[in-house]
Amino acid sequence: MKNRMEPGTLIILIIIGILAGILSGFVGVGGGMIIVPALIYFMGFTQFQAQGTSLAMMLPPIGILAVMNYHKSGNVNITYALIIAVTFIIGGFFGSKLALKLPENKVKLIFGLIMLYAAIRMIWKSIGNMTANAGS
Questions:
Q1: Cα separation of 10 and 13, whole Å?
Q2: Which of 93, 83, 76, 78 is nearest to 17 (CA)?
Q3: Model confidence over 42-94: pLDDT tens digits?
Q4: What CA–CA distance (Å, rounded) separates 84 from 68?
Q5: Which of 22, 42, 46, 88 has its CB 3.0 to 4.6 Å from that of 17, i.e. a possible disulfide?
Q6: What pLDDT does residue 61 have?
């Protein structure tokens, strides 16, 4: 029996791919910085599933060996990776067009804010998890 993807899931994957592509083209961040957290928070993936799927999406530029390791351990969703990869390409095109129309200092500011947000969110979640685990 073949698993069918829900339309809502497809839409979320397309949005993740386009936004990651736009941000990558706009400020040069790696797609994994956007895709991994998005798969965890919006798709309910584990950290390893998100990393494996993100690497599968970026297979050509990153390398096949890392993806093979994640795939062997069952932590790659190829269908999701392909959808995100295609939409990432489209988003990257539009993100780079937008970035090149803005002054460099504004793009640097946006890049810094994205990095700061990601760092604060990861630190906050980690502290919350450590606090919750300390009580058990």
A1: 5
A2: 83
A3: 999 887 888 788 878 876 665 677 778 888 999 999 999 899 889 988 988 88
A4: 19
A5: 88
A6: 60
Q: Where are the alpha helices (DSSP H) in 3-103?
A: 7-27, 31-43, 47-57, 59-62, 64-72, 78-101
Query: Is this structure's pTM higher than 0.85?
Result: no
CA atoms within 13 A on the CB side of 132: 6
Mean pLDDT of 2-25: 85
DSSP 78-98: HHHHHHHHHHHHHHHHHHHHH
Q: Which two tokens stand for residue 68?
A: 């093979």
Query: Can you read off the two tokens belonging to residue 126?
Result: 């980690």
- A 10 A CB-CB count for 25 gives 22
